[in-house]
Amino acid sequence: MKTITVGSENPAKIAAVKAGFEAMFPYEQFEIHGVSVASGVPDQPMNDADTLLGATNRAERAMEALPADYSVGLEGGNEEINGKMAASAWIVVISRTGVVGKGKAGVFFLPQEVVTLIQSGIELGHAMDQVFDSENSKHSSGATGLLTNGVLERMEYYKQAVILALIPHKNTKLAF
Predict the structure, then answer these.
(1) Stretches in the chain below the pLDDT threshold 70
(2) Which of 6, 97, 141, 163 has its CB surrounded by the most CB atoms within 10 Å?
(3) Burial of 83 (0-12, 13-18, 19+ CB in 10 A)
(4) Does residue 15 form part of some domain?
(5) Predicted pLDDT at 154
(6) Does residue 176 form part of some domain?
(7) Cα–Cα nearest to 36, from 15, 56, 66
């Protein structure tokens, strides 16, 4: 049984980590624990570098808080691309042996109604809830789920990036 510590208690993030690990290592058993750790970046990162740093910090701090075979940090953030606001997420997976893997979720653009709220200082999840008249969507469907009307829920959106972050852990004989 392998242990995984996720640097978040968000059920959608924990479910994505579980699904990603099970997809990459189908013959392994995993015990997963979420811990609340600080990202060390603003609650709403506004550039790619801060988003990656937040995911890295969460993975490192999760390993410190609850040592495990793997620790995972997930951080969603925004960035301006060609005058429009885009959202994406970084996932960082660190093994007990020091192997680090990184994966980035797909980039999607936000509607102006949400952008205006973010620019006023509101975090993406809260802005989405206001615009879509929902409650606590960041713990369930997320922005992707709301914007795609459930076609791509937050867990599935993060799962792919978790799988990408596991590439160095799956291919241990290669140098990354």
Answers:
(1) none
(2) 6
(3) exposed
(4) yes
(5) 94
(6) no
(7) 66
Cα–Cα dist 56/40, whole Å = 10
The verdict on residue 175 lying in a domain is: no
Cα(50)–Cα(46) distance, integer angstroms: 7
With respect to residue 157, please indicate whether it lies within any of the assigned structural domains: yes
> What is the DSSP secondary structure assignment for residue 16, as one 8-state letter?
H
> pTM for this one?
0.95
Question: What is the predicted pLDDT for the residue at 138?
Answer: 87
Domain that holds residue 130: 2-170
Tokens encoding 36: 């609340």
Block residue for tokens 């990603």: 20
Instruction: State the CATH number of the domain containing residue 48.
Output: 3.90.950.10
Calculate the alpha carbon distances from 160 to 9, 18, 100, 154 in Å: 19, 12, 17, 11
